[in-house]
Amino acid sequence: MKGRGDRHVRVAERIREEISLILQNRVKDPGAGSITVTDVTVTPDLRMARVFYSVLGDEEMRKAARDALRRSKGYIRRELGQVLRIRYSPELTFLYDATFEKGVRIERLLRETGSRESNGGE
How far apart are CA 76 and CA 23, in angstroms? Predict the structure, then answer.
């Protein structure tokens, strides 16, 4: 039997899934089309949720996505409240997740370092 201590983790995963579906199927803002929800963390009292998202594209697409989320925030929260069936629909904070870009940068740097070492060894 699971303890109640992990309820906020389960709710966070459900919020991630539902926000992804809402963005895909219900939000009509063109800037929301390229958003991927990467993670959600929820406070233990379930009143606040930090939604991490990423966008494949350039800086302009990231700004469009940020603005789309800002405009759609109330709608997304209202839709979540109807689906989740919890006492309070959490206050949403959207945060850009640059993990993918950091990984690409590290990989590029490692490749450059490896090619320098192989050229220097000849």
Answer: 8
